[in-house]
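S1.2 Input.
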Amino acid sequence: MPDVPPTALRRGRLWLAAAGVAVLALAIVMKADPESPATPASTKSPAPHGIDADPRSARAQIALPREPGAWPGPYGLSGVNGFPVLNSASVKEFCSTRGRDCKVAHTYTDRTSYDAMTGGSGWTFEYFADFDGVLVISQALVPDRGENLVADCAAGKYDQNWRDFGALMVTHGRGDSIVRLGWEMNEPTMAWRGRNATDYIACYRKAADALRSANPRVVLDWTINAHNTPADLCGGLSTNCYPGDEYVDIIGIDNYDHHPWSPAEADFDRTAAAPEGLNWLFDFARGHGKLFSVGEWGVMPTADAGRDNPEFIRWMHAWFAEHAPYLAYEAYFQRCDGDFSQSSILRPDDPKCLPNTGSSEVYTELFKR
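S1.3 Output.
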């Protein structure tokens, strides 16, 4: 969940603030598409050998067949965020090290003001101009420290900003990308957190409608923070902030090995089944006819685990493989900032990062296939 000021980005650095790290029919925007990515890819006719699907099109890539039992397989959308810089070079370095190209790059917009995070976020796309894959953009609903602007957003005050962002996506040739709009609204550090579920939902819907009016091809991902929703956010249950099927194309979760961490597979399974867990939200998504995503995931040795946990990588990979027909995409989350977060892998020579050697080895073994 990075906080990314433009000054840091324009100097070529990724700055991350301490914010807890913490298909059947894909909404209105998808209904005109006969090959909507909401249909489980494995239920469609097999793609012909050498299928020519646009690698930058989220819709085209999500629609390719993904059979259960393997991940990424031929068509699974697997990737990472750019680290230490939010750009294609950082993504390509990670993917080269793992031994398999990434089909997804996850990035974030600036959050210093409404103008900066919408019409002023051209750099978000420029930094990935040469990335020949699907772009996932995490987009705030209000700027940092803008908690009091959620009601204004709900009233439509910022609709033009959202139209500007949609137009910007189209201008940069990235209209057919995934936008994680107002993600982790159940995380206490997010300015758009669901202190008032009604306002959050209304703000999300206003933003979605305005964004789609300028960019009908956008794919909207509604993502929660795993494992816990405080009582004062979304009434203590993340899905109380669900904006409705009409406004959501993919339902997702950010799932880290922390609070609680998983020392054994039984713990992993129990956490996944509990409210706000992987399986719990996956079932919610399927109940609403939506595909699923895991836009951020990773080990967390500086949290309650207190150490590297390579088995978490293994269990996540197995989960991805089992749920592959309904998994739109997944992206590992890279981050190193002292004692707060050390999720990064495949960075043995970075003095700021813990080596996480076990996780790096297991990840390479499983995700290069």
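S1.4 Remarks. Residues 1-37, 42-50 have pLDDT under 50 and may be disordered.
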